[in-house]
Design brief:
Blueprint: H1 7-23, H2 26-33, H3 41-51, H4 69-82, H5 88-102, H6 105-116, E1 122-125, H7 131-134, E2 154-159, E3 162-173, E4 180-187, E5 194-201, E6 207-212, E7 221-233, H8 240-276, E8 278-279, E9 282-283, H9 288-317, H10 324-346, H11 357-372, H12 375-385, E10 389-390, E11 393-394
Helix pairs in contact: 1-4, 4-8, 4-9, 5-6, 5-8, 8-9, 8-10, 8-11, 9-10, 10-11, 10-12
Length: 396
Amino acid sequence: MDARFTPEQDEIRRTLRELLLKRCGPDEVRAAVRTAAGYDTGLWDTFARQLGLPGLALPERYGGVGCSVTELALACEESGRTLAPSPLISTAVLAAPLILALGTEDQRAALLPRIAGGDLTAALAVPGAGLATALGLVGDQHGDWAGGGRAGGVQARRADGGWRLYGQAAHVLDGHSARLLVVAAHTGGFARSRTSLFLVREDTEGLVRVRQTSLDETRAQARVELRDVAAEPLGEDADALGALAGLGRSAAAVLAAEAVGAADRALERTVEYVRQREQFGRAIGSFQAVKHRLADVYVRVQAARSAAYYAAWAAGDGGGHERVGGLALAQALEALRTAAAEGIQLHGGIGFTWEHEAHLYFKRASGDELLFGPVHRLRAHAADDARLFEGGEVVV
């Protein structure tokens, strides 16, 4: 394994960082999240048409760039630094890989080039609050996240030669603006219940989408209601749970990189501030106690970055790395929470004002743990999966 980045990978980071420094400051972020779409559509158009970010990890035959999960993780690390609101995670990280993995050739040919070009945004709708469970990050994918064959979740039934969906899903990332939904639903009733994935277009009759107020406003979320909605199965007799578990490994690596970018920027902003703020006639950054606290944060961020990069490489390697993504995500979320909390503390009184930039990072840390964690469950599931503890003893 060569841990060095290629010139192409370095160029992705440099180009994206320069763009976001110009187009995505704190004021621009706050303005973008208050639009109907929840993000800057002009910036998304630049992402898609000039940089090719939505199709970065898609094959060239479908209009993509043909890169790996590593390049996508590097791009999301840069977008995470500025907390850039965009449908990149929902479209390129969660929905597109499922279409690529499970879709028929006709579905891939019809949808993936439009996703790669930025014309089609997509979202993964998982019922309840079970996205992390559905992706196999905090559990074994069982439970009531898709109804469990009982009332609740989203149920699918055959009707008039097609499929109809009924139910609702909350906390769907970019669900209010996505032009295509990939919906997890249960088929077969209670006796032969199984999870399947379906495609639902934005203009389908009976589809109701309501944007929700969320703790982290830079990640737009919606409640999706399906009232006897016509749907198209994704693929033919596809293994939805297996595909979701595979998606979880790559998505966790990308989300970890994004969290590392946010943590790194939060630390940078804090270091800049303590060099300027004076107390007792000297910059507070010169005090040993402050140096120690920031040094601890720096070590956490660098360790999380190494874990995220390794997880991104492992996701593309495809051999025996099932637990790496969840562990890297846990370490990255912990680093982001620590960096954001220390940033608020060391900014003093101004850091505690709700409008300060430091709170954007603190809310991102808290929101990501609610969506993809929490940290202790990510680690506990990895330990259980590795059978680390058996009979009260550590298995070596």
